[in-house]
Amino acid sequence: MSGRLTEVDHAVLTTGETFIHSTTFHDYLGAVRIRYRLHLTMVDGRPVVD
Question: Domain segments of the chain: what residues?
Answer without folding.
Answer: 4-47
